[in-house]
Amino acid sequence: MNKWQLLVLTSSRFNILPLTSTCNLRCIFCSHHQNPPGVEAIFISPLSLKEIEELFGYLDPARPIVIGESATRIVEGEPLTHPEFFTIMRSLRRRFPHTLVEITTNGVLLDKPQVEALKGLKPIEVKISLNSVTSGGRQKLLGAGGAAGILKAIEELTRGGIPCHGSIVAYPKVVGWDDLEKTIYALVQAGALTVRIFIPGFTHRAPAILRFDPWGFRQELESFLENFRQEVKIPIIVEPPFLRDLIPEVAGVLPGYPAEGSGLKRGDVLLEIDGQVPRSRVEAFRLLSRPGRHKLKVRRPGQELREAGRELEILLEVPLGGKSGVVMEWDGDPEVLKAIHRSCLRHQARKAVVFTSELAHRVMEGMVSALPGVAKVIPVRNRFFGGSIACAGLLTVEDFLASWEELRKKGEDPDLLLLPGRAFDFRGRDLVERHYTELAQVSGLPVEIL
């Protein structure tokens, strides 16, 4: 796949508009520095206005347009370093006058003129990757100076009607827990609507300073954050989530949005939405994203699931073109279950194996339990990247082949192998250009991508 094809894929599949791989920081946790040999990270110089406007044609105006993120091998850069950033934004706004644009930035270049320019380009949401608020912490993590200007920009954007969200890659091992505490409070006080705390991933090539026990750290982090969640109104979310069930529990509500006014609270479990029982957090979120008045049946923490008279009924009205303000963690998409069912029917399979990531293992088991005796879920360890990498998007054919070999040695006898779609591009190739059909050749079984 050449560079232009990758740019088109990024825009058409993920609704991401790539601008540049140029960055003005030197983050010690930048994932591209830890890639094993064979993984080609694509660096793009600032694209021309003509190239970017050509990519407009691959964007879906019914979905938010994302700038400053990457879902492919393209190295994500700092979008505000592009010399024609605001020319691009004005052109984008002319093409899509009503589509929400989500901009992820480290905020270093957000001075007053840029903030004022953004106010004239709404609807926009800005996601600030702050990571540390202290000068010492920022120097250690990012090779950068203070954050006073960034916090001021968040305040000004918020006053100007542009929602801002903050994010932190949590490295208390490097900067200390007090640094993380100060950074969370700074984002809350500046007016961030949410704070996302990322547990950093590291590969087997990471230096010792970036390595830690991922499961032990997650527990320590969740315990640390519980105090904040009691004190502040805004949602504080840990990503990636490590979920073990499909219970549609509310992770938080955005202040000033309909969900807060309706009385919904963090920890509420959505039992019914307009008479429909949501099968997962994802399905519940989608149901609540529809405009109109929704009648909810809710169980609040401490109440028994079916205890008579203890369920709450809540009315939630979502305006046309607006958001409910409900924050949910991503678990399982019921559409994946439908795809599994269709594949099993197509191949008349009764012993299908669904390969999945270690992170999604429990959630997928919960989904597949709706197909008893038809499919079995197998978590695949990431041997290629190693370290703490446990997501589906970084699994390779090498990893699936190793898991198949383990199954074979155990005497398992499946009749269909199903693979996560996130591990492959539209050609069916993984990050090192190996095709998923290698697994079919080795196993002698039908193999499909979900």
UniProtKB/TrEMBL annotation:
- Which GO MF terms are attached to this record? 4 iron, 4 sulfur cluster binding; catalytic activity; metal ion binding
Can you name this protein? Radical SAM superfamily enzyme, MoaA/NifB/PqqE/SkfB family
UniProt superkingdom = Bacteria
Q: InterPro entries from the entry?
A: Aldolase_TIM, DUF512, MoaA_NifB_PqqE_Fe-S-bd_CS, PDZ, PDZ_6, PDZ_sf, Radical_SAM_PqqE_MftC-like, rSAM
Q: Which organism is it from?
A: Thermanaeromonas toyohensis ToBE
**Which keywords does this chain's UniProt record carry?**
4Fe-4S, Iron, Iron-sulfur, Metal-binding, S-adenosyl-L-methionine
Asked if the keyword Cytoplasm belongs to this entry, the reply reads no
Gene3D superfamilies from the UniProt entry: 2.30.42.10, Aldolase class I
Pfam families per UniProt: DUF512, PDZ_6, Radical_SAM
What's the cofactor? [4Fe-4S] cluster
The chain positions of domain Radical SAM core read: 9-241
